[in-house]
């Protein structure tokens, strides 16, 4: 009898159940806490941009004032005109940047879509080994390859041309191939089998079946490529020497006076160079987020 009593689990009194009003109040408190945390985090990230914006509208005296002055007494919009049309040809820099970015994006799409489809849907010997080797290249820092690439391109006579910045983009980027491959594996195999029964070739399947369904992933790749090439500074500085061939990032790096730097004009030009990225991101925000989400958590 004692053993049976000891073996019985002790009965615990159930806690008081929450009413619907109490549960709703708890949910509101949690939601409010999440919103407050997001607002504080957003304010922390937006402070540098706000400082850059207010600095671009200050006068020279307000720019050098101590203690620093957050907001100008009067808005000097002419800083944008003076900075852009000053001693440096920023219009030419803009056209150079657009050319390099557009061709690099095209190269990324062509060179990444084809191997991503092959890794996702075509069976070949040692495909897993090749895909693992591809992913291993992502662990190599880009700075390690700068010296051998410069030696190779200098022997080819490509220094002070756009070729070292554009041609490598036509040979694939491991991260983009991985993201596209992850998205392609989520497309039902039945669609591909039906296209093959109808006599479609692999390129026809890729063009007519896979690419229309992969628009979110392609949008994410395009945005990554656009931002990376638009803001590229290190390799542009290594290969481009002539002033008429420089990009916006290099132009901002040269925005220094002999005795004093016009920080208000520099910030004005920096904001103008950021506008294309902001516009493209806000226009394609939903597609970009959907593409990143699907390529990040889906796949086989």
UniProtKB/TrEMBL annotation:
Residues 1-22 are annotated as: Disordered. It is a multi-pass membrane protein. GO terms for biological process: transmembrane transport. Residues 94-284 form the ABC transmembrane type-1 domain. Pfam families: BPD_transp_1 (PF00528). Signal peptide: none annotated. The keyword Transmembrane applies. SUPFAM superfamilies: MetI-like (SSF161098). It is found in: Cell membrane. The chain crosses the membrane at residues 34-53, 93-117, 124-141, 161-184, 205-227, 263-284. One of its GO terms (cellular component) is plasma membrane. InterPro entries: MetI-like (IPR000515), MetI-like_sf (IPR035906). Keywords: Cell membrane, Membrane, Transmembrane, Transmembrane helix, Transport. Belongs to the binding-protein-dependent transport system permease family. PANTHER family: ABC TRANSPORTER PERMEASE PROTEIN MG189-RELATED, ABC TRANSPORTER PERMEASE PROTEIN MG189-RELATED-RELATED. This is Carbohydrate ABC transporter membrane protein 2 (CUT1 family). It comes from Nonomuraea polychroma. The lineage of its organism: Bacteria, Bacillati, Actinomycetota, Actinomycetes, Streptosporangiales.
């Amino acid at each position: 009898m004692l053993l049976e009593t000891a073996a019985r689990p002790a009965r615990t009194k159930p806690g008081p159940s929450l009413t619907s009003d109490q549960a709703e109040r708890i949910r509101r408190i949690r939601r409010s806490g999440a919103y407050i945390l997001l607002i504080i985090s957003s304010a922390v990230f937006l402070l540098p941009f706000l400082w850059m914006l207010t600095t671009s509208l200050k006068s020279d005296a307000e720019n050098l004032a101590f203690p620093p002055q957050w907001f100008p007494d009067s808005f000097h919009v002419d800083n944008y005109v003076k900075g852009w049309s000053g001693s440096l040809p920023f219009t030419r820099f803009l056209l150079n940047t657009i050319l390099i970015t557009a061709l690099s994006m095209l190269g990324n799409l062509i060179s990444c879509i084809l191997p991503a489809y092959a890794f996702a849907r075509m069976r070949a010997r040692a495909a897993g080994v090749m895909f693992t080797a591809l992913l291993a290249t992502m662990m190599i820092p880009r700075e390690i390859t700068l010296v051998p690439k410069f030696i190779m391109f200098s022997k080819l006579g490509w220094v002070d041309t756009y070729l070292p910045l554009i041609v490598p983009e036509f040979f694939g980027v491991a991260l983009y191939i991985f993201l596209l491959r992850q998205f392609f594996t989520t497309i039902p195999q039945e669609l591909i089998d039906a296209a093959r029964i109808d006599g479609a070739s692999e390129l026809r399947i890729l063009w007519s079946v896979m690419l229309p369904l992969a628009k979110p992933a392609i949008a994410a790749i395009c945005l990554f490529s656009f931002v990376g090439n638009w803001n590229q500074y290190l390799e542009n500085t290594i290969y481009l020497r002539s002033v008429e061939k420089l990009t916006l990032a290099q132009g901002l790096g040269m925005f220094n006076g002999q005795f004093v730097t016009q920080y208000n004009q520099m910030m004005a030009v920096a904001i103008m160079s950021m506008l294309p990225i902001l516009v493209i991101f806000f226009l394609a925000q939903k597609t970009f987020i959907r593409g990143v989400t699907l390529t990040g958590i889906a796949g086989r």
